Each structure stands twice: as structure tokens, then as C-alpha cells.
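dumping this here so i dont lose it
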């Protein structure tokens, strides 16, 4: 049976997460692009694939028994001389963090430990002891207040370059789960940042059934184009095609590579593939007056409609391009 590399953590919420990442880069943390700022509750553990639902269920149960946790991050400290790690101390409701850790540290997520549990947010894992000690002195005044409102299950996966990167695959909001229909058809309603693997599989399965019933053999097909330079991803275009139409839902180019024509190439390749699939028009949406609207119009896309306060309270324009 295949095994998944999983872990459980409290992810530092924005905007403090952006500050912590800036500190991590300044300190030379090698993991800054591999995992978001976090407080580890369960370090990496190998879990059989067929126990994933049990792990998610345990996460939900632990979260439901825990209220949101307010803590302070800082001051910095190190685990020297035992371990070359520079970190931010957790202060405040640390007992609540420990209690939550005890609730999630059960099968199939339990494992033997090398070090005792010490709630912290890592700034730099590894490096010269003198450099880590200097970092602790320089950043001695740093403090930040955060409230953890969810706990996350993360999975280690390899990215396009072969690096091991940790991605959240499930989250559970801290606090009691809402239940409606008591005494009748009882229904539990949980809120999170994303669907957990079981819910995602359910959604994909049911949408496939519904799409087939509605569209027959021409239900939407995913279409993704990736641009790489020197083996590294510099841009992506993602959407779908269905019958004679296509939607280019997401187009992004790395900030360091904008203005080099990558976006135009991605769009052109997306449209070429859509045309090859039999599409006769394509659509895209962007913020009215935003930096991307001019880009689309220069490529020959024309306005088809507008949506007021559609995304993040911003007006959105729908554009089309005949193929």
C-alpha cells in the first residue's frame, strides 16, 4: 500500500506570515520556498494511503474541541548547541497549542520523536552557529501577535525541479462544528480554506456525473499550459474547453519575468490547443482598469460583458476572442 508523507501544523496567518518569510530569507533559511511559516504539531510521518481519511477525521475532531488560539511570536531564540535552529518563541496561550498537539498526535499521525515538543516558528534551520546566534541578537526586538483559527494537514510532494515541497491538503477551523437539522435529517457543516481529499474526490465524482448527464461526451476538459525557462516554471495558463468554447481562467507569469512576452506565448498556445479541440471562441475575465485589461485588449480580445463587485469587491470585465 502506498504511503503519504504527512504533517500537521498551525500556519502563521497573513500578514504576519509575509513578515516571517522576509525574516527567513534574511536569515538564509533553506526551507523558505518549501513550506509556509508554521508551528509544527506533528512532524513528518509516513501514513498509508488508505488511512488518509482517518487522519483528516482526527484533524477535524481535534479542531472541533479547540477554540482559536491567540499567541505572541518572539523573541527569537536558538536550540544551540544541540540543534542549529533559529526560531520565534511562542508565548501566551501556549498550553492551548500543547493541548491541540496532544489531540492530533494520535494514530495514524502518531510517531516516535527525536526531540520533545517545543512550540515555535522556525526562522532558519541549519547554518553556522555564530550566524544563528547573531540573528537572534539582531532580531531580539521582533514581536508579532497572531491568532490561529485553523489547523492544517500538509503533504510532502516533489515539485517540477524535484524539490520536496509541503502543501496543505486539508484544514479544519478551530471551534465547534455547526450542526443543523437536529432531531431530523442532521447535517454537519464545516468551513475551511479548501476541500479535504475526501470532499474533493466527492466533488469531482459528482461533477463528472452531472456534466455527463448535461453534456454527454463533450463535458469540459481541463487545459493547462506551462512555460519553463532553464528548466524552471516561469508562467502558467489554466482553463478548460467544452464543445465550441474555451475559458482561460488563470494566467500568471513570474514577477521577475514579466514584460518578456511569456504571457502572450502562453495565451497563444492555449488558444491553439483550444482551436485544435474544435473551439470557435475563448473567454477570459480580468479586473476593470487593472494591469491585465490592457494586455488582453492588445492581444485582440474584446469586451463581452461586465460584473460589478465580482471579485474582492472589484468590477470584472469578461472578454472574448474568436478563434
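and the seq i came up w/
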Amino acid at each position: 500500500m502506498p504511503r503519504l508523507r504527512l504533517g500537521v501544523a498551525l500556519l502563521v496567518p497573513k500578514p504576519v506570515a509575509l513578515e516571517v518569510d522576509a525574516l527567513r530569507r534574511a536569515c538564509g533559511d533553506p526551507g523558505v520556498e518549501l513550506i509556509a511559516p508554521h508551528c509544527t504539531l506533528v512532524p513528518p510521518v509516513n501514513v498509508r494511503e488508505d488511512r488518509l481519511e482517518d487522519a483528516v477525521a482526527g484533524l477535524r475532531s481535534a479542531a472541533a474541541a479547540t477554540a482559536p488560539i491567540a499567541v505572541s511570536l518572539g523573541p527569537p531564540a536558538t536550540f544551540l548547541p544541540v540543534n542549529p535552529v533559529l526560531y520565534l518563541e511562542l508565548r501566551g496561550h501556549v498550553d492551548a497549542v500543547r493541548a491541540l498537539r496532544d489531540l492530533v498526535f494520535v494514530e495514524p499521525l502518531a510517531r516516535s520523536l527525536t526531540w520533545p515538543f517545543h512550540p515555535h516558528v522556525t526562522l532558519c534551520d541549519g547554518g553556522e552557529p555564530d550566524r544563528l546566534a547573531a540573528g537572534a541578537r539582531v532580531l531580539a526586538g521582533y514581536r508579532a501577535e497572531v491568532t490561529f483559527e485553523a489547523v492544517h494537514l500538509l503533504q510532502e510532494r516533489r515539485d517540477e525541479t524535484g524539490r520536496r515541497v509541503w502543501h496543505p491538503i486539508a484544514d479544519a477551523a478551530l471551534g465547534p462544528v455547526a450542526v443543523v437539522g437536529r432531531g431530523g435529517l442532521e447535517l454537519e457543516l464545516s468551513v475551511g480554506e479548501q476541500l479535504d481529499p475526501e470532499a474533493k474526490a466527492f466533488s469531482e465524482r459528482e461533477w463528472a456525473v452531472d456534466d455527463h448527464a448535461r453534456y454527454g461526451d463533450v463535458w469540459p476538459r481541463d487545459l493547462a499550459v506551462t512555460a519553463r525557462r532553464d528548466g524552471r516554471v516561469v508562467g502558467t495558463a489554466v482553463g478548460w474547453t467544452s464543445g465550441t468554447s474555451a475559458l482561460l481562467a488563470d494566467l500568471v507569469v513570474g514577477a521577475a519575468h514579466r514584460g518578456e512576452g511569456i504571457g502572450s506565448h502562453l495565451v497563444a498556445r492555449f488558444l491553439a490547443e483550444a482551436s485544435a479541440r474544435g473551439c470557435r471562441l475563448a473567454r477570459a475575465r480580468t479586473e476593470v482598469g487593472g494591469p491585465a485589461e490592457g494586455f488582453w485588449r492588445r492581444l485582440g480580445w474584446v469586451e463581452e460583458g461586465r460584473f460589478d463587485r465580482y471579485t474582492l469587491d472589484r468590477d470584472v470585465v469578461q472578454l472574448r476572442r474568436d478563434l
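Residues 3-174 form a domain with the Cyclic Phosphodiesterase; Chain: A, fold (CATH 3.90.1140.10).
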